[in-house]
């Protein structure tokens, strides 16, 4: 039985490796190409599963070749999936351009992901019944995400919401259905503006003081806010429930790695965080954050998204227990 349920997106990634991003109207010769499974939800489910935690994935795909690839990869990973196979919408696909410094530019058609039926999600109630955590993102239609959070609440699961991308429909009521949110700098900035009316430049967040970041995070009204700061690590802000931590806010530095592709690092973090909260459930939240930070860092040393998610043994071998 799954301990973590991930309700989210599947996207077939198509990635081109270039020395630098092309200028408008310019054609760059790519020095590499790969295609593989991705999508925030699926990436996070794979990251969670590869930490050794029983995981189930719920999502929508098309009745097409890319949908068949999704199912084949999930079987090879031994990842139990409950697919809503749509005949009226195709499987989602993305175009990813990765520069030599590891930065990426992405265009995606979410296709079937935007039509995940709420009735289909509700029909998976038995998957939630025995779980401990539900993890969702925003690459699906938000009514399906709200339904998943409602099921998590009904079954007393810890609810983690990765509000990515920060689409306009994410409002205070949806955000506050979660116990933990994991935005990056851009998503955090957009949520602050939308929900708290605070205009904060995303590029300045990592350089702001911890007390200021904590005060800003508290304005979102969510129990625990974890801001992923890319190459600057991450920042944790708790409300009244510190989840076993000695302090209510802190920053964690990034791990040293040889990053070649940062695509999917945020997904590695969120998926590994869910897993680590199960693995280290008797330890302070900080222990889970350390592990998630390590998984995210190590994922950047491999090109791709879902296939780049490192396994628990590789993380321990690299960074220690």
Task: Explain how this protein is built.
There is one protein chain. It is globular, with a radius of gyration of 18 Å. It is α/β, with parallel strands linked by helices. The chain has a 9-stranded mixed β-sheet, sandwiched between helices. Strands 3-2-6-7 form a 4-stranded mixed β-sheet. Helix content is 34%, strand content 21%. The chain is built from 11 helices and 13 strands. The chain has helices at 40-49, 65-77, 118-122, 125-129, 142-154, 172-175, 185-196, 210-218, 265-279, 285-299, 312-319; strands spanning 4-7, 11-17, 32-38, 55-62, 81-86, 92-98, 104-109, 133-136, 158-161, 180-181, 224-228, 234-238, 249-252.
Strand content: 15-25%
Instruction: Report the radius of gyration as a whole number of Å.
Output: 18 Å
Largest sheet: spatial strand order:
5-4-1-8-9-10-11-12-13
Shape: globular
CATH class: Alpha Beta
What does the largest sheet look like? 9 strands, mixed
CATH architecture identity: 3-Layer(aba) Sandwich
Q: Name the CATH superfamily classification.
A: Ribokinase
| Structural class estimated from helices and strands | alpha/beta
Helical element count?
Answer: 11
Q: On the 0-100 scale, what is the average pLDDT?
A: 96
Structural domains: how many: 1
Query: In terms of per-residue confidence, which ranges show pLDDT below 50 for 5 or more consecutive residues?
Result: none
SSE pattern, N- to C-terminal: EEEHEHEEEHHEHEHEHHEEEHHH
Might you state the CATH topology name? UDP-N-acetylmuramoyl-L-alanine:D-glutamate ligase
Helix content: 25-40%
Number of strand segments: 13
What is the CA-CA span between the terminal residues? 26 Å
């Amino acid at each position: 039985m799954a301990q973590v349920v991930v309700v989210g997106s599947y996207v077939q990634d198509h990635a081109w490796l270039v020395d630098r991003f092309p200028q408008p109207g310019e054609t760059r010769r790519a020095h590499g190409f790969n295609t593989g499974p991705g999508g925030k939800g699926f990436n996070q489910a794979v990251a969670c599963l590869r930490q050794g935690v029983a995981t189930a994935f719920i999502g929508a795909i098309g009745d097409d070749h890319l949908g068949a690839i999704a199912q084949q990869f999930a079987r090879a990973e031994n990842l139990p999936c409950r697919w809503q196979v749509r005949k009226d919408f195709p499987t989602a696909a993305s175009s990813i351009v990765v520069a030599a410094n590891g930065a990426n530019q992405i265009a995606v058609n979410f296709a079937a992901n935007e039509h995940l039926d709420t009735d289909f999600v509700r029909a998976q109630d038995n998957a939630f019944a025995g779980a401990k955590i539900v993890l969702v993102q925003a690459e699906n239609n938000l009514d399906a995400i709200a339904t998943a959070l409602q099921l998590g609440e009904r079954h007393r699961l810890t609810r983690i919401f990765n509000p990515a991308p920060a689409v306009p429909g994410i409002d205070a009521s949806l955000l506050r259905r979660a116990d933990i949110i994991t935005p990056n700098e851009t998503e955090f900035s957009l949520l602050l503006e939308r929900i708290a009316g605070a205009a904060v430049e995303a590029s300045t967040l990592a350089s702001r003081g911890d007390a200021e970041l904590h005060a800003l995070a508290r304005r979102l009204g969510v129990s625990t806010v974890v801001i992923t700061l890319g190459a600057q690590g991450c920042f944790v802000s708790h409300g009244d429930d510190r989840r076993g931590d000695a302090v209510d806010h802190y920053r964690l530095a990034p791990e040293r790695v040889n990053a070649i592709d940062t695509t999917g690092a945020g997904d590695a973090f969120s998926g590994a965080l869910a897993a680590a909260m199960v693995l280290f459930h008797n330890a302070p939240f900080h222990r889970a954050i350390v592990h998630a930070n390590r998984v995210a860092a190590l994922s950047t040393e491999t090109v791709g998204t879902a296939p780049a998610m490192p396994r628990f043994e590789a993380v321990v071998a690299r960074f220690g227990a």
